[in-house]
Specification:
8 strands; Glycerol-3-phosphate (1)-acyltransferase; globular; 7 helices; alpha/beta; 15% strand
Length: 258
């Protein structure tokens, strides 16, 4: 196994994993301490801790050796963000681009390590059960009214980073509920450029791929590639007849067909 990456590769794995691991978990400890002060003073609103998450994710990408760039600006309106989904790296990239909270399938909460991190950073977990739909919509409304910028992946699963799947309209339905107010949706496009000499889908993490081998291969790369996040102009929900029309337009924008 050691021959797969050579001495240099394993040295990079050891160095990057130790530094980035210390950064992420150290940042999480600081965040939990700040949240203990923030919560009784501001309730569900989080005026300070999202800045820490953003700083940690930006630093982690830099320490792993990635080139990183953001086009466009985070929206100022009340609403949420949707993006294409290609990799576990999306979490770092999108958090680094703007201060968001992810909407994720409930199974992620049980994943070792990742689930704990997701819960601690304020991820909203949802299920596919019809009986849970109303409760989940009310929770989504509550988070939006608290000023949280929620983000979900309408594809429903990740790809190999070289293409975009059709956007599913299911979660968009919550934006048309009573009491949601005048909402906006900001489409965001993630673009990955592989390291020199590697296949275009090097950073893609999809299907039944295991997390650990993909993480190791990423950390071993001698020269990392580049991640670009494009923040498109926000779309006003009320300008679309329903969830299907809104989902289709967001897909078109994320694909760059606008």
């Amino acid at each position: 196994m050691s021959g797969a990456y050579g001495f240099g590769g394993w040295a990079r794995i050891a160095l990057r994993s130790s530094i980035v691991g210390a950064l992420v978990f150290g940042g999480l400890v600081v965040k939990l301490i700040l949240r203990a002060v923030e919560a009784p003073l501001f309730g569900p609103a989080r005026p300070f801790t999202p800045y820490l998450t953003q700083a940690v994710c930006r630093a982690a990408l830099w320490l792993m050796g990635f080139g990183f760039a953001v086009q466009g600006r985070p929206m100022q309106q009340h609403g949420l963000v949707v993006a294409n989904h290609a990799s576990w790296l999306d979490i770092f990239a999108l958090n680094a681009a703007q201060r968001v909270y992810f909407v994720s399938k409930s199974e992620v909460a049980a994943w070792p390590g990742i689930g704990w991190l997701a819960r601690a950073t304020g991820t909203l977990f949802i299920t596919r059960k019809v009986v849970e739909a109303k409760r989940q919509q009310l929770e989504l409304e509550s988070r939006l009214h608290a000023g949280h910028r929620l983000l979900f992946f309408p594809e429903g699963t990740s790809t190999d980073s070289t293409f975009i799947l059709p956007f599913k309209p299911t979660l968009f339905a919550a934006l048309y509920g009573d009491g949601m107010g005048d909402l906006y949706v900001q489409p965001a496009t993630l673009r990955y450029t592989a390291p020199a000499g590697q296949p275009a889908n090097f950073y893609g993490w999809w299907g039944d791929m295991d997390f650990a081998p993909h993480l190791i291969a990423t950390l071993a790369a001698k020269g990392q590639g580049r991640i670009e996040v494009i923040l498109h102009p926000p779309l006003r929900v009320a300008d679309f007849a329903g969830r299907k029309e809104l989902a289709a337009e967001c897909e078109r924008v994320v694909r760059g067909e606008g």
